Every structure is written in C-alpha cells, then in structure tokens.
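Re-running the complex after MR caught last week's input typo. The corrected sequence lines follow. Everything else is unchanged.
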Amino acid sequence: MASPVDELPGSALATPAGEPPGAAPRRVFLETYGCQMNVADSELVRGLLAREGWVVVPDPAEADAILVNTCAIRENAEERVLGRFTQLLQHKQARPGVQLGLLGCVATHQRERLLERAPWIDLIVGPDGYRDLPVLLRGGTDPRIEVRLDRDETYADLAPDLAPGPRAFLTVMRGCDKFCTFCVVPFTRGRERSLPAEAVLEQVRSAVGEGKREVVLLGQTVNAWRHDGLDFGDLLRRVARVPGVERIRFTSPHPSDVGESMIDAMAGEEKVMPWLHLPLQSASDAVLAAMQRGYGLDEYRRLLERIRARVPGIAVSTDVIVGFPGEGEVDFEATESFLREVRYDFAYLFKYSAREGTRAWKIEETVDEAEKGRRLERLIALQEAISLERHREQVGREVEVLVEGPSKRPPGHVHGKTRDFKTAVLPGDGIEPGALVLARVEDATAHTLLAVPAATAGLGASALGRSKSEPRDPGRSDGATPR
Ligand code: 5AD
Ligand code: SF4
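Corrected-run output:
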C-alpha cells in the first residue's frame, strides 16, 4: 500500500529495546475482528508495541509481524480464522522472517485445534496475555503461546493507541461472570474485573488531551463495574466531571446489573447521552431461563419503563438471539410481539450458534438452520419497519451531531452521531471532524437521518490530534461488528 510508514504513529520512536542502534524498526500489521472490546484491545496492543519500538503499518505486505485479533462469539470462527491465516501465509512464504500471530478469543477457545491445523502460526496469545507480546515476538519462549486467563489483568497502566476520530472507546472492566448458557465469553475472556476509577479517569483525561470529545466506556457487562466502594453510576458521574468531555456513552450493560445509581447518573448528568443498549436475547421466559440470563420478561419490561420514565425520549437498542434450543413458535412470537411493544430504535439480531464449551453446547438443537433463517428474516423485517418509524419521528426536529468525517454518500456530506446515537448525514463543506453541529432533520431512512445544519453550536472543530487527516487503518473496520 502507498502510505509511507514514516507518516504513521509510532514511527518516531526509538529502535526496539535490545536491537543494535541503527537497526530498522520492526513493523507490525494488526487486523481486528469482533466486538468493540476487541477493537479497544487492538488499540492497547498497538500502544504497547509502539512503546517497544514497533511501527504499525497498514499493509501486511510491509510487516515483519502480522497479528490477527480474533472473535469466537458466533459461527465458524475457527474456519474463518484459518481461512484468513491461510491467505496471510503467502507473506511468510515470500519473506521467511515474517511472524504470524493469533490474538484474542479464538486463541483461548480453539488453540489446540488451530495448532494442529496450522502449525505454521508462530504465536498464539489470549486476551490476558498481551503484556507478553513483545517478548513472544522476539522469540523469547517456545512454544510461543500465552493463553492463560488472569483474574487480575486489567492493563490499567497501559495507554491505548486510540483510533482517529472524535470518539474514544475505553475499556473499564474485563471478563464476565454471568455464564449465559449460549456464550463463550466467560471462557475466552475470563472472570470479571474492573479498572480502578483513577485509571479510567486518567485514560479519559488523556483521550480529551488528544482532542476526543466523546468517550464510550466498554465492558462485557460494563455496569457491573465496581471498585473501592464505587459503583458504575459513581464512575459515570466522575467521568462527567472531567473537563473537556462532551459526551459519555457505555456498552453493554446487563439488565441484572442496572442499579438506581446508574439510572440517576443517566437522568442527572447532561453529558451521559440518552441512549441505552440493553440486551434482551429473548422475550420468552422459558428461553430466558434456559439461557440463564438472570431476569424474566416482566423484570426487563419494568426496568425499561423505569429508565424511560427517568430519561424521557431515551433511545434504546438491544441484542436478540433466535433459534436457541427449545425456542418454539410461541416463544419466538413472544419476542416478535415484545419488539413491537418496546419499539427499539435499533437491534442486533443473531441466529443462535452453538459454541463448544458452553452449557448450551450440550443441549440438542431443536430449530434447524432454515427455520432460524426464517425467524431471523421475520425479525429483521419487523425491526427495519420500527427503526424507520423511529427515525421518521425525528423529521422536523433539531439534533446535535458530533461530526466524525466525510460520508460515503452523498458526496460533499459528513456523517456523525446524534446524542441518542442515530447516524446523521449533513451537507458538510468545511465541517471538520470533531465539530458539534446543530442540525434540522429533513428526511430519514431506517438507518440514517438526513439533516441540514441549523447553526453551529459554537463548539467548532477541535484539534483531533495526530491522526486527523489520515485514512482509517483498514484493520480496524475489517469484519468488526458492533456489540
Ligand atoms: N449465538 C448467537 N448469538 C450470540 N451472542 C452471544 N453468543 C451467541 C451465540 N452463541 C450474541 C448475544 C450477545 C451479543 C454480543 O452476541 O446477543 O448479546
Ligand atoms: Fe456473554 Fe454477555 Fe452473558 Fe456475559 S452477560 S455470558 S458476555 S452474553
């Protein structure tokens, strides 16, 4: 690829520790799949390797080490990872010193099988092993595998190399203790642990120092965050006090961990945005029980009512799985009817995918693939119609848009998010990323608001730090799906 490496972040750093002076810096390519937590982990790895003198390059053909941060949550993860590594093998064949490394959840979940099928992978490192990467890349151990889960690892002291743009994703807790029966995360990412509040605040201050205006606090069950007697609501309030933060979001909270303190913070803090992603999974009590989600439908419904009463107009999104073992037509219809009742602003809809090692793995599947597909299609059609209505309700309103950059379509436009996390597109000659723009919504599709600037909010573009004008690293968007 054309971008010269000396224009990329990290290139000004000294030669790696232990390298003779004058040796060329070693170059790393890192590709990311999966959830936002994985994207944030990759930022951590980039930061860690940059401090060790590695230069991040945008093309595997230029790299001495090619790393793939993988996701195990659904369908054929192992096959897809193998397929990708088989493509990447060409670089190792062309330049024999090149190292191939597998990072992330698939490393913990499928290491044995992958080692058998792709013994040419040089290193395998799970989500708690990233501190060892510099040593592993130097060939410090044999075999070069670090997949142990570590109850205490939070990487609280490591500064991530944040992606360009006005939004920073910051991990505040890691792991999960919920053990929903369908989910592999507690096995691949280990037990729940929180970063100290001060470490989170330091990362927020540092993000603001780089010109970020919005922070998204991340965790598998983010609202389970707790540290030194503080709860998640306290954390939100503290983050809101950091000078320069304009917008705060978080994802994904678990319904069972929503406390009054969190709702108070959402209702009382202007900077905590009116959007909540509250995973439902199913609206059938029988299925929820089989999933061991820890709540029944009525509890979820009452919780949402409480939140909507305290934060009027809040946008709500969700995750739903169709075709869990035992899900009958009646169970599925309960979910359909609940989507109609709640009218989520948007929803991520998934077909159940049996994951080895989970409790549901042992339960015989009762819904075949074709039927899962039909149920998924029905929910998609329903949710698209609801999302369209929800977006159309915004027509004629004024919304505040945090501009992220040029829009793919139409030309001459920029895109950004409203306070309630809807995508807005507006004519944008001269509007820089990072600008907060007041805009009037003129039209809407199921996924986008089409708006025109009403007036700039007097909060023009800020310096977005070093990477403002660089193209996005292709690795960041490749296959990453929102969670
Ligand atoms: N099959 C299908 N969807 C799953 N999810 C997690 N595990 C599975 C699985 N085995 C979905 C859930 C979760 C989201 C992140 O991914 O809906 O909330
Ligand atoms: Fe997986 Fe989320 Fe359940 Fe944890 S709470 S087991 S991450 S679905």
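None of the earlier attempt is carried over here. Residues 1-21, 456-483 have pLDDT under 50 and may be disordered. The domain at 167-392 is CATH 3.80.30.20 (pyruvate-formate lyase- activating enzyme).
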